[in-house]
Design brief:
The protein is α/β, with parallel strands linked by helices. 40% of the residues lie in helices and 15% in strands. It starts with 36 loop residues before the first strand and ends with a helix. 48% of the residues are buried.
Amino acid sequence: MNKKMKRTIAIAVTVAITASMTTSVTYAKGKDEDVSGSLTLWYNTYSYEKALDAMIEAFNEKYPNVEVDYEIKADGDYDSLLKTAIQSGDGPDLFWTNGSVTTTMKDLAENDAIVDLTDKVDYSFISDSAMDLVKVDEKAYAVPWMNMDTRAVFYNKDMFEENGWEIPETFSEFEDLLKTIKDAGVTPISLCYDSWCMLFAFEPILSAYDAEYSAGLQDYTVKATDQPARDAMQKMVDWAEAGYFGDNWFGVTDSSVQNLAFTTGTAAMNIAGSWDIENISMNNPELNFGAFEIPSEDGVTGMVGTSANGFSVNAESESMDAAIAFADFCASKEGQTIWIQTLGSVSATPEIESTSPIAQEITDSSQGNVYRSWQNVLSSYSEGGEASNIWAEDFPKIFTDEMTVDELMDEIEAVMK
């Protein structure tokens, strides 16, 4: 297997790393020259390139005899590409999976395609909640990141100031703001017609629509298809019909185009994942933007999400010692700090401070409340994640009158435990 694969170049624009996005980590002293080999890493999106570069640089400070390269597989179905590569014997040494959020990691573990890292990696810095993301039958098959994959409303500060728009303090004020922006001839929210993009908007809308219900998702004392979730989903359909996502949003099928509509000033707001902070900044380094969480009618706010997942190790890696060493480095405080601070992401641990003012705005806006992902409940409480698969396929249909919200929710409810 050829291990000297070239890095894929996909972004034509180069952006200087601002001081607020740089890492302040001091690399570990001492070198381990006994470990050698060549590693290829796979990740699923270009927004992680700077973090990967920083991680590899730091790893090579400690392991100078390991050659590490990476590829970004953002075009096409990542999971299918990964499974095909592994089955053909040409898979990468380490690769990103979405952990327990989807069934890919579980399928690979059950087919002995990835390494049980439980006793091979030092997970002492990783929180128990983050470890839940990487376990199959109580064994760890990946290294989670201690940054919070959350969702937020990104807003154009200059546009808000010029028009006298203010950050809402209640859910009804947020709805009023949407109408006000639409009446001003501006698209209120940039959104992509894709199940995942719509999910990252639906979940913070749901947490604001009924904060008490959203808190109950944590221990499954409420069900994913209960009435509050149906009502919040219908609210999103109503907003689409009112034109709050733009007149032609069905034609936007790529998250990068969703971000572009926001960064070029076509849309006043963009409800998206915290991982898009870097993408937004790269699209328009001059954009003056901030972030907030949608408030409930009582003024309660919170952020939806979990710790992010990282690398699994290919069971057929030809450089197994080096692959395990890289996974172990990722799990260390040093590795985690490099990742979080280079990305400027929301930190999920008080031991690492985020370097991004936007990430800090998200944290401050959440009032300390964290809600479980609604989609994670689907994957966790249905056999083989079947409910999550139904959602991914049919969620867009409620916006085109192919299905009603109740028909979708009833379909999901039928396969839930």
